[in-house]
């Protein structure tokens, strides 16, 4: 019986080829009641307004990912320990693309206000 379950699982994973959801982090950087957004340049949603964010690297914490993506995409440095989890989504875009996105939030320090 255990062999049948194993084989059925292997067949299903081979059929979908990706088989594993990707994990992304979205960043809500608050300044009072405003939040930072920018236009996407990547292939997914190119030209649309979106929060900074991206893929979680292997062995990276959610907080470190949020800080890294914010620095890479907006040039804003916020310490990783400043981020808190806000919410999580799980979205299947098509038969081969499934993203779990963890949204992290932090407040923009007054020293960085423009």
Automatic annotation (TrEMBL):
InterPro entries: Nudix_hydrolase (IPR020476), NUDIX_hydrolase-like_dom_sf (IPR015797), NUDIX_hydrolase_CS (IPR020084), NUDIX_hydrolase_dom (IPR000086). Pfam families: NUDIX. Residues 20-114 form the Nudix hydrolase domain. GO terms for biological process: dGTP catabolic process. GO terms for molecular function: 8-oxo-7,8-dihydrodeoxyguanosine triphosphate pyrophosphatase activity. One of its GO terms (cellular component) is cytosol. It comes from Apatococcus lobatus. The lineage of its organism: Eukaryota, Viridiplantae, Chlorophyta, core chlorophytes, Trebouxiophyceae. Gene3D superfamilies: Nucleoside Triphosphate Pyrophosphohydrolase (3.90.79.10). Belongs to the Nudix hydrolase family. This is Nudix hydrolase domain-containing protein. Keywords: Hydrolase.
């Amino acid at each position: 019986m255990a062999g049948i379950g194993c084989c059925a699982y292997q067949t299903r994973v081979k059929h979908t080829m990706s088989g594993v959801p990707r994990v992304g982090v979205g960043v809500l950087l608050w300044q009072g009641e405003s939040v930072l957004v920018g236009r996407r340049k990547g292939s997914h949603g190119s030209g649309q307004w979106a929060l900074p964010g991206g893929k979680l690297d292997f062995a990276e914490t959610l907080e470190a990912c949020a800080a890294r993506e914010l620095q890479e995409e907006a040039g804003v440095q916020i310490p990783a320990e400043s981020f808190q989890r806000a919410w999580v989504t799980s979205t299947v875009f098509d038969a081969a693309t499934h993203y779990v996105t963890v949204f992290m939030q932090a407040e923009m320090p007054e020293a960085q206000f423009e």
